[in-house]
UniProtKB/TrEMBL annotation, chains A, B:
It is an enzyme of class 2 (transferase). Residues 42-196 form the N-acetyltransferase domain. It comes from the Eukaryota. Pfam families: Acetyltransf_1 (PF00583). It comes from Brassicogethes aeneus (Rape pollen beetle). This is Glucosamine 6-phosphate N-acetyltransferase. Gene3D superfamilies: 3.40.630.30. Its EC number is 2.3.1.4.
Amino acid sequence: MSSSEGDNYLFDPELLKNLDWNSMNYAVSPFITNEDPGESWLLIRPLKIEDYDKGYLQLLSQLTSVGNVSRSDFEKQYWNMKKAGGYYVTVIVDTRNNQIIGASTLITEFKFIHNCSLRARLEDVVVNNTYRGKQLGKLIVLTVSLLAKKLGCYKMSLDCKDSLIPFYKSIGYKCEPGNANSMMVRYDAPKADSPS
Amino acid sequence: MSSSEGDNYLFDPELLKNLDWNSMNYAVSPFITNEDPGESWLLIRPLKIEDYDKGYLQLLSQLTSVGNVSRSDFEKQYWNMKKAGGYYVTVIVDTRNNQIIGASTLITEFKFIHNCSLRARLEDVVVNNTYRGKQLGKLIVLTVSLLAKKLGCYKMSLDCKDSLIPFYKSIGYKCEPGNANSMMVRYDAPKADSPS
C-alpha cells in the first residue's frame, strides 16, 4: 500500500494485521478473524472520510441519535480525531455493495497512573441487524479489543446495558465485583432527539 | 496573566472562571466554588509540570498504583496530553506548603453521534484524606463537571465503586436504569503492583 493510500484512513491499517486472535479462539466458533472474516465479501478496515457516503452514519443511527450531520461536519470531526490521535474507528464493509455494515471505536487515553500507561475504551458498537448469524458483533468488538492489547493498553473498558452483559462476558469482559458502576450526568439536550 | 505564564498550564486557566456553580448550589453547603473555595490557602488550577515536585504523583498513589515515574516520564506524558488536547487535569493546592492535595481529570472525546458532539469523562479523582470536612471532593469533581458543561459536552460519565454511588448521586450523577454497567478486560499487568 502506498503512503498516499494510507493517508486516507483515520489510522494506519497496518495496525490491524497480526492481532492476537489465538487468545480468543475459545470465544469464536467457527473461528474467524478480522483478516479472515469468514466471507470473501467482508472487509474490516479503519474509517475513511468516504464512508460518509457508504452508510456509516445511517448505521450509527441504529444505535442512537446521530442528527443532521453534513459532510463538512463529518470531515471536520474526522480531522479532529485524526489530529488528536487515539481514535480507532473501525468498520466492516460489505464489498458487494460498498456499504458499512458494522462499526466500533477504540479510544486510547494517556494516564499518569500505572507508569504513565495507556488505557482503552470501547465505544459506539453497532452491526447492521440484517447480517445476523455471522459473529460480526464479536468480530468488530474483538478486532478493536485486540488492537488495544497490541497498542500496550493495560485495560479496556466499556459501558453497557444490562441486556448486553452476557455478550461481553462471552468475549472476555468482566463486571468487577463492587466496581462495575457507570454513572452519568446529562447537560443541554443534543440537537437530535434521543440521547444515549 | 501573561501568555508565558499561561503556557505553563496543561490547559488555559481562564476556562475555570465563571463556571455555573449556581446550578449546583443545592449540593454544596456551605456554598463554595473553585474561585472561592472557603479557605484563603486553597487554590484550584490546571496541572503544571512543576506539580511533579509538589506531590501530585504521591497523591495519585492514594488512589491506585502509580509506579516509578521519572520526571522525564511525567513530562513526556504531560506533553502527550497537551498535544492531543481534551485532557483537563485539575488540582487543588495547599498554598501554605505548596502541596497538591486534590485532583481530578476531565477528558473530552469527539463523537460523530449527536451532531458530532463532545462527550466528557471523569477520571482519577483523589483528595488527600487529611483534609476531610472541607467538601474538597465535591469541589474538585464539580469544578471539572461544570467545566465539561461550559465546554458544551452533552454528557459526562464516570465509573465507580459501589461505595461511591451515594457521593456522586449527591452531586447530580445518576445510574440510568438498565444502563449503568461498567465492564472491563485487563491485558498485561502494568509494571506497578495493584491495578485499578
